[in-house]
Amino acid sequence: MPLVTTTEMFKKAYEGGYAVGAFNVNNMEIVQGITEAASELNAPVILQVSAGARKYAKHVYLVKLVEAAIADCPDIPIALHLDHGADFEICKSCIDGGFTSVMIDGSSRPFEENIAETRKVVEYAHDHGVVVEAELGKLAGIEDAVNVSEADAQFTNPAEVEEFVTRTGVDSLAIAIGTSHGAYKFKPGQKPQLRFDILEEVGRRLPQFPIVLHGASSVPQDLVKVINHFGGQMPDAIGIPEEMLRKASTMAVCKINIDSDVRVAMTAAIRKHMAENPSHFDPRQYLTPARTAVKEMVAHKIKDVLGCAGKA
């Protein structure tokens, strides 16, 4: 099966009351862990690439790794998505370079500028058979090139979504309802909350339209403890409770982005292995359990959070 767009994935997800996982990829072991889990569970999956990943691994390496995953896991639908494209030129580069989906993130711009830039990307993408995600509202947090302070974060205004979608022609919309980027989403003692009232109103205003949640890692505390036990320093790392994500996936949310959880799982496995095997210096020795940790994390998300197992 060749790379696909997210159109059919999202249609099935909306109708079925589940969400498709969009997992950030940076290297071979992460790609393998994600796609092997999805293949074994017969689940659709989105592999997404950030600006930081393109800088680290280079565009061509990432595309070729995804092509290898398609050959290795031919029976599941896989989409290749640009995460947080900063402008038209970056989106165009990825569209021309084989991506089947791109996100243009104009959320930091005034409303009219966001519309104009998004519309420009949509026109080019649709002419090339590629789908587009955009964003309204601003998520707090830090992840790769995305850095938004709590003071600058803004919930999505439901009153703007119909105009934005109509004028841009965008295929899916990322909204801000309380999730945030990175592994430190809430302050110690702060109760995690999502604005389901905003999500419900957006769904009412945009019936059957796919909504996206960014910054949706849960930052498992058992893995944080492993990292800290073996020399790491991740105090006060807190994520989104998984039951909240499951609820969102039964509503209008068709795509849930997960990055930090993959990083945490991989780092915990590597730290543990290196501490318990101080003589090891072959990267294959510690990257093998790291890849397994990624696979186990993704399998858990597919089965227990996203609800998309068996939906390929």
UniProtKB/TrEMBL annotation:
Presence of the UniProt keyword Cytoplasm in the record: no
GO BP: fructose 1,6-bisphosphate metabolic process; glycolytic process
Enzyme class: lyase
Pathway annotation: Carbohydrate degradation; glycolysis; D-glyceraldehyde 3-phosphate and glycerone phosphate from D-glucose: step 4/4
Transport as UniProt keyword: no
Keyword annotations of the record: Glycolysis, Lyase, Metal-binding, Zinc
CDD domains: TBP_aldolase_IIB
Active-site residue numbers: 83
Reaction equations catalysed: beta-D-fructose 1,6-bisphosphate = D-glyceraldehyde 3-phosphate + dihydroxyacetone phosphate
Positions annotated to bind Zn(2+) 1: 84, 181, 214
Residues reported in the UniProt entry to bind Zn(2+) 2: 105, 135
Cofactor: how bound: Binds 2 Zn(2+) ions per subunit. One is catalytic and the other provides a structural contribution.
Any one Gene Ontology molecular-function term assigned to this protein's record: zinc ion binding
Family: Belongs to the class II fructose-bisphosphate aldolase family.
Database matches in NCBIfam families: cbbA, fruc_bis_ald
Identification of the protein by name: Fructose-bisphosphate aldolase
Source organism of this protein record: Candidatus Anaerotruncus excrementipullorum
Organism classification: Bacteria, Bacillati, Bacillota, Clostridia, Eubacteriales
